[in-house]
Amino acid sequence: MATGKKIDTPLLDQLEKGPWPSFVKELKGMAVRKPMIQDLLGQLEMSYREKRGHWKHGGLVGVMGYGGGVIGRYSDSADKFPACAHFHTVRVNQPSGWFYTSKALRELCDIWDAHGSGMTNMHGSTGDCVFLGTTSEELEPIFKELTDKGWDLGGSGSDVRTPSCCNGPARCEYACYDTMDMCYNITMAYQDELHRPAFAYKWKFKFSGCPNDCVASIARSDLSVIGTWRDDIRIDQNAVKAYADSGMDIRADVIRKCPTACMGFDGKAIKIDNKQCNHCMHCINVMPKALRPGKDTGATILIGAKAPIIEGALLASVLVPFMKLDKEDDYQEFKDLIAKIWEFWDEHGVSRERIGECIQRVGLGNFIEEIGVEPIPEMVMHPRTNPYIFYEEYFEEGDAEGAEEA
Amino acid sequence: MADKMSVEAIADAMFNIVKEYAGKKRYKSTDLTKEILATYGDKVDKADCKAAIRTLMDSGRCVYGYAGGSFIALPGIEGAAK
Ligand code: SF4
Ligand code: SF4
To answer: What domains does chain A contain, in order, with CATH numbers?
Structure first.
């Protein structure tokens, strides 16, 4: 049902002023041929006027067999805005690294134009290509058309959310492993967990090729894979000289900004005490022609980040300081680790609790003991702290009484 | 070892739980699996429970719902759609 009735939107109109792109302008353009968008504008204006939202979320909406990929959204004012009574979101699994051909983009837009509002969000914060606004009746046809053309839905709810990665070696010389290959591999390996929610709450994988962490995996994923190296930073001293000759103040801009003060520059060459380097990437980012990550590359595996929902935000902490990530072995070491973590989470997780919160509740020590990972000094939450020390191992039976007497 | 239950029999047992508690309790996949494991002991394992849930979903006997977290329900109209 459609009203398609144009209504005045004085508050939204404010957002068309100024030199910036305006979503209101875009929506008005679409509203001419999409009654759903016309009513969306009406409802949004009402929300701005009343200073409250008019959407209801959730329910049993989805496609047959899948528990993820569709987020039910309904208007609580369907009597006034019937064309957007249903306004469901469809998440489409994006290609690794967000590489699309223009043909692929047209394909997606054509499907969405035929079956939904036509409005997209490229991309959602998890990484999916997001289609905004359709009705329950259109979900199966959308799903069929997408899958016929080789696309699939992404995750939502208490499942593996669509994994995402930086474009890594496709465009970036800093990549310490093949992020796109690993992201694709993991996406395919965990299809069941992605489409059929089986966890206490959501689980996000994100893959960054180096410590610059362009997909912000350390802050936004339950399981963060950040490329790193364990040998020495590669230095091209001729390029260092060229930077100096071109006027770069290497001492001020590079050496003194090294957070661990492990660099030196004698006016001609750079020296690095690599044992003290914490791989912050600063020097490499400033002098990309002269400095490069080492050759013995892999990744650091971190666990437990999340945005604030029930508890406050958490940054991930290091679980495995270095993993080689063997493509030839199908990333088996990584998958074995995930299996152990999920086993633990199945056992101890409670509803709506992310793995990071679960670990906090159960205790970091208990967690790593249960998943069979050796506690080592690199497992730090903050520099110079170590929450994983197991003092019991250093005591003999009876030591406690002795200590008390002393 | 006890005779193993078939995936279909586990799916039936799960369906009965969801049906019995419809409107009273929202079962997540893990809750259903734990309940089946507790009831049938070594006649069942986690992998078969996972396959049973898939059977329930693919046949349309059950659907996934969402209310803060995902749960398993009978098909119908519930929550925000009402
Ligand atoms: S995270 Fe590193 S490898 Fe990936 S795109 Fe950013 S700088 Fe490049
Ligand atoms: S990567 Fe960071 S810590 Fe390491 S040498 Fe460069 S600036 Fe220093």
So the answer is: 10-148 (3.30.70.2500), 164-228+297-394 (3.30.413.10), 234-292 (3.30.70.20)
pLDDT tens digits, A21-44: 999 999 999 999 999 999 999 999
CATH topology of domain B7-81: Arc Repressor Mutant, subunit A (1.10.10)
pLDDT tens-digit series, residues A90-106:
999 999 999 999 999 99
pLDDT value of position A201: 92
Q: Look at residue A124 and give its three-state secondary structure.
A: coil
Amino acid at A228: T
Q: Would the pLDDT of A386 be above 90?
A: no
ipTM given for this complex? 0.84
Q: Which two tokens stand for residue A23?
A: 């979503």
Label residue A268 by pLDDT band (50, 70, 90): very high
- The Cα A310–Cα A353 span in angstroms is 8
Say what the alpha-carbon torsion angle A358, A364, A367, A371 is, to the nearest 10 degrees: 130
Q: State whether residue A56 is helix, strand or coil.
A: strand
Q: Out of A60, A201, A349, whose CB is closest to B73?
A: A60
**Are B30 and A67 an interchain contact pair (Cβ–Cβ within 8 Å)?**
no
Which of A158, A196, A351 is nearest residue B54 as measured by Cβ atoms?
A: A196
Judge if the beta carbon of residue A282 lies within 6 A of ligand 2: yes
